Each structure stands twice: as structure tokens, then as C-alpha cells.
Amino acid sequence: MNWDDFEAFCQVVEHGGFTAAARALDRPKSSLSVAVTRLEEQLGTRLLERTTRSLRLTDAGESLYRDVSRPLAELREVAVDALAKGERVQGTLHLAAPYEFGAHHLAKVACTVMAQHPQLKVHL
Fold first, then answer.
1. By the 8 A CB rule, do 89 and 81 touch?
2. CA–CA gap between residue 20 and residue 51 (Å, rounded)
3. What is the pTM assigned to this prediction?
4. Among candidates 97, 34, 35, 31, which has minimal Cα distance to 69?
5. What are the strands, taking DSSP E only, across the chain?
6. What is the pLDDT of residues 70-122, one digit of tens each?
7. Domain 3-123, what fold?
8. Rounded CA gap, 8 and 38, in Å?
9. CA nearest to 7, candidates 94, 69, 52, 86
């Protein structure tokens, strides 16, 4: 599983649909759709009920969003702060996530972030 797929899913939920998320992220709508579909296939469950006019989270989608949205938002915040400051990222980032997500996905992202920013400490 790819952390970008989780990010795409969260952005679609937060923006209320694929079109708005694609516009906000300056990405093709199809790339978000592919990412969410891939995530659904890997998890073995539908996360979103899609119609031509609406989008609704399934129970599994609500649960996943609740579990991953905060840790992903915190990582986005770190990246935005680092870019805005134009400085080295340093300090301590505390992340909380359900064990399964933390162990299988967030840990990989944290390792990547720590490799890019050696002055940053990440506590899961």
C-alpha cells in the first residue's frame, strides 16, 4: 500500500468529491480515482459509494478516514511548515494512529520523513 493512496482518499473526503479534490491538489481527477480504487482493492472493501452526482463514505470508509486523517494532516503540516520556513525541519513530531495503520503504513512514512530531515524526531 502506498501512503499517497491514503492521502488521495483523505483529500477526496475532505473536499467532498473527486473534482474538488483534484482542483485543490492540481492533479487530474482520474489519478485520485485510480488511487482510491487501488486502496479499496488492497483493503478488500469499498470505502466510497459513488454516483454521478454524489459521494458517500461507507462504514469502512468512515472508520478508515477517522483512523488516518489526523496522522496524515500532521505530516502535511510538518511539510508545509518546513517549506514555508525554508529551514531544516527539527523538533519532535508526535503521531497517534491505530496499531495496524501505524505499523504498516505510518512507520514507513515516518522513516522517509526522518531520513529527509535528520533533526526531526518522530514518536509513534
1. yes
2. 15
3. 0.66
4. 97
5. 48-50, 55-57, 91-94, 120-123
6. 888 888 888 777 777 766 667 787 777 777 777 777 777 777 777 777 777 77
7. Arc Repressor Mutant, subunit A (1.10.10)
8. 11
9. 69
